[in-house]
Sequence to fold (166 residues):
Amino acid sequence: MVQFSVNATRIDPYKNFRFRVLFGGVPVAGVSKVSGLKRTIEPVQHRDGGDLSSKRISPGLASFEPITIERGITHDNEFELWALSVYNPEGAGLISLKNFRRDISIELYNLQGTKVRAWNAFRCWVSEFTAVPELDANANGVAFETLVLQNEGFMRDDAVVEVAET
Fold:
């Protein structure tokens, strides 16, 4: 079986270090890490009274793992503003029912900078926000802020197709 229909001689899968995250179609600056997209279907076991001593298993409810997004701390406050839409201490802890959910997109690029795959996650909202990571005067690293997003599903964007590589 050919792994790449347009670039039939290609044998290497795409790398995981060239990607972009978009909130509502707008690129998010500085994202350095995104967790995987994972769906789990809960198995439902049942047995008819007349069956032999074995159970039948059928698909049940779907659940979607939270998506974690990390980026180095900058002066862009997009993460914080979204997190405040779910809990705002200045607004007596009330949430914005209009704007707290967003669709996001994750785009994967090849080494030439061409978008090769994309996924859309739906009705995401911030369940966890790390504004300041652990700080350590003896460390030598980047300070990251983190969002954990609950979501109600994802789909691959079929409009993104394989293009000929040069």
Notes: The first strand starts at residue 19 and ends at 23. Residues 34 and 69 are 5 Å apart (CA to CA). The longest helix spans residues 78-84.
